[in-house]
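Recap quiz, item 2
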Amino acid sequence: MKGILKLGFKLLVNDKAKFSALLLGITFAVYLMMFVTSMFFGVLNHASANIINVGSTIWVMDPYVQSVSNSVGMPDYVLDAVRSMHGVKYAVPLYSGGALVKLADGNYQAVTVVGLDDTSLLGRPALLEGKIEDIYAQSGFIVVRDAEFSKLENPHIGSEFELNDNRAVVVGIAQVATSGLYGVPTLYTTYERAIQYIPNPRYTISYVLVEPQSMDDIPQIKQQVEQLGYRARTKEEFMKRTEDFFIYQTGGGTNMLIMTAISFIIGLSISGQTFYTFILENLERFGALKAIGIKSRDLVGMILFQATFTALTGYGMGVGACVLLIWLAKLRLPSYAAMLTYSSLLIGFVMVAIIAAISSYVGIRKVLQIDPFTIFRG
Amino acid sequence: MTHVAIQAKGLEKWFGEGEAKTTALKDVELEAYFGEMLYIVGPSGSGKTTLLSVLSGVLKPNAGSVLVEDIDIWKLDADKLADLRLNKIGFVFQDFHLFPRLTTAENTAIPLILKKKDWDESVREAINYLDIVGLKGRADLPPVKLSGGEQQRVAIARAMVSKPDILIMDEPTASLDGDTGNSILSFVHKNVLNANRCIIVVTHDNRIYEFATRILHMEDGRLTATEKGAASGTEKGAPFGAEKSTT
């Protein structure tokens, strides 16, 4: 069988024009599909940036919250009630909201402000410069150094700006695991300062962050919060809800499906058609092989090998091209949203497997149908 | 020249049904012997190629039987029939059917590769056969770089590399000019034919009749006449047959 596979390999690879067209088709399809899904998964990841960065085990919120960026304010009694629930180790408030800052040059810049519990500073970022206790200093804010950092005119410790006519001073530069989706800088301060500086509706607690006494307590905490008329979600559940919002309610999911389908159709058309042409051009010679004495299963094995080899090579090249492009993009834009996930790789692999299966099925069908007698008839 | 290589009994073959039915073979009986070069000749549409296909296990007859060394080949299953073709029959097709993307040596080695022999060993053996047909120096070239006559020689080397008992040649001179065709058949008669091999040639090229041991005439699907050819059969060994005489 090894020799027959080598024969198939040489027949395929030595036809450089067709082999290149086959590889190009599959590589392009895989690249396109991987890139679309990578971008989409990256966007989903960035959409959950606050959940990831704050890192609380349980998030208590209004039942109508659809994503982390669209919080609905809760009254203070919710915090007190949660703190008194069975299984709760501790609970703290979190403010999350948007604001406009006035920069030194007079320009305005939109920012996301995260207000951390004054006592515990739960969810604080890792500092690159400055000390965390300086957040308690008058007008103290910590700026996240990410791709949007420069929009605040590359501030340093001591830089000043205005927030709703209040003076704000940079007391620390921080880094976070994931930057936000909306392309605006992120500021951290205390909860009390946040609600003091930013005009707010009646209720100011965006989320209550909860640490359970043990993981086993999570179900009963969720149940008790629900009885209160609110929702308690684990970090993973909240991320899933945020992702679902982007997939099903923003059109993002539909767009991804459409792009994946288009890349699949392109890949299948180019590769399927080229492989079929390859088979057709060699049909008489395959017929000659049948006359000489090749067994049908060996012929099928040879064609399957050709299709599989082409598909896997194209898959590898497509993934490689996607990785290269994302890497290059991230060199220029560190917060570039694309993110290669196992799901992307799996979806790409399944798609390529289907393309290979359909192409080889069509080829095998044609080759098995050819009657070697036609070789004698000329 | 007394051992029967192929025996056909009562062969019938038709294509289509009803009004579209065309009968290609009608009660054909023949025997081909080891050591002879048997020609099947006749006008186009007389059934020569159909007969050749049925005899070589490529086209199943509607009635009758074909015995190759006493084995009724049309009672074999598909795999055993493929094995029989691979091991006992060599084919030289009218249009050669060489793979343009393989080298001459690789093309020649195909029957050995199909027999699951090691690739490198098969190619080495194929080069020995190319040496016999005078093309060793062209072993690494693709067939498209060879002339028609050279391609035909490659096809002969490919047919012979598996050391078959029976060599089937379908219109071997159809794609060649007169002199080249003559030299090819002369080569086959001199170097391929031996006491342990039977060569069946389908042709309507009367310029090569001089190499026939026997000539069967076909018309309308029937064998109508047999005549003795100008050439004699052979009992002697030949370069392509040396391996057979030792078995």
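Residues 158 and 337 of chain A are 31 Å apart (CA to CA).
The first strand of chain A starts at residue 58 and ends at 61.
End of item.
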